[in-house]
């Protein structure tokens, strides 16, 4: 047993370190028929991700890593270009950094936002949502990398806004495409708060509490289009999702299909077409690496448990 004790101690410590150090992975996929430039912003105090912005051509995926305990948001920028001076900008959801990397800058509204608070190995739940509080620019879906079927209590569900809201956006909220596109084409749909800057729509001032700030006709428009997404600031009850064990991360898909979004209703019922009704998740090399790492951790834990945890 003399040689076994150090080995067991090493395995125990290695297991702990792997669990503690393992980052979370966002597998970001573009199922649109146009390029999307994802942007990523960490909340104050949260460590930065492996990248804060990049180009994602149609049909491509990229795995982005963040700390296991992390909070922040992900969004998609569209119609981006670099001018003659070398300054990069986007027609929708621009972060204003002048480059593809957002480097600590957030999205200018209107922007569809995926928001996350990851608990990591602390034993708590992850919280996540897709928000239209700042308006809409691109369809989006979020789904946990769940290693097993979703629990019966309804956690670890997919959420998002798979409908192309731009097609049905009210005229007073519509953001028109820049030239030379057709003048009638909408590239984004503003929130009523941004469009009118009134407290009733912004849930501010006298309306700055859940009791005082009720849904408006405009927030109901967004809710009818995407029932699982936030439509205004206090839309928590039907729009915040949790997952106790997301298997290391989440899928974030631009222009998703509707098959994974069981809780979100049917966007066609509101006269809004799904952005891509045939899209299915397929995973990628990034998620495979996470799965392999998790398998190693599980094996090490099993070895330690079967022998004796007292040696740790």
TrEMBL record:
Gene3D superfamilies: Thaumatin. Disulfide bonds join 32-255, 80-90, 95-102, 156-243, 161-226, 169-189, 193-202, 203-213. SMART domains: THN (SM00205). The lineage of its organism: Eukaryota, Viridiplantae, Streptophyta, Embryophyta, Tracheophyta. Transmembrane segments: none annotated. It comes from the Eukaryota. It comes from Panicum hallii. Residues 1-23 form the signal peptide. This is Thaumatin-like protein 1. Keywords: Disulfide bond, Signal.
